[in-house]
Amino acid sequence: MAEISWRDEPTEEDYTSALAYLQLLIPVTGAERAVARFRDLEVSEHKAADVLRAAGVSQQELLVDLAQEQSPAMLLAAPDPFAPLIIVSGYLTVYSVAAGDRDAVIPCKLLHLP
């Protein structure tokens, strides 16, 4: 698998997309607070296959062009340890990386809700 170029931080477009997605799941104020907390998080690294397994993803047909620079994924973990991990931003990138190498490590911002 070719080397993937990762940004140091998600782009403003990533944060905007994350907000729009979260507003479908939780009230607007909660979504805004979550995105604000994502902005403050440090990027960590997790195996692509582990992220997909935690999110309950089994397969996806659409892949992204990994030759382009990618943003770190934004992940939301609910307080219930048995609830699936939510890939707030970067879903297709995570899947595309895992499709090429399930043990590839990807940069992530992981937000644990209280």
Descriptive account of the structure:
It is a single chain. The radius of gyration is 13 Å and the shape is globular. It has a four-stranded mixed sheet. α1 runs antiparallel to α2 and α3 packs across α4. With 114 residues, the protein is α+β, with helices and mostly antiparallel strands. Helix content is 39%, strand content 18%. The mean pLDDT is 90. It has one domain. The chain has four helices and four strands; from the N terminus they run ααβαββαβ.
Secondary-structure topology with pairs:
Elements: H1 12-25, H2 28-40, E1 44-47, H3 48-54, E2 73-77, E3 86-89, H4 91-100, E4 105-112
Parallel strand pairs: 2-4
Antiparallel strand pairs: 1-4, 2-3
Helix pairs in contact: 1-2, 3-4
Relevant terms:
4 strands; 114 residues; alpha+beta; globular; 4-stranded mixed β-sheet
Strand content: 15-25%
Number of domains: 1
Helical proportion, percent range: 25-40%
How is the largest sheet built, in terms of strand order?
1-4-2-3
Give the N-terminus to C-terminus distance in angstroms. 37 Å
H/E series: HHEHEEHE
The largest β sheet comes out as: 4 strands, mixed
Global geometry: globular
Average pLDDT, all residues: 90
Structural class: alpha+beta
Query: What is the tally of beta strands?
Result: 4
Question: How would you sum up this structure in a few lines?
Answer:
The protein is 39% helix and 18% strand. It is an alpha+beta fold and 114 residues long. It is globular.
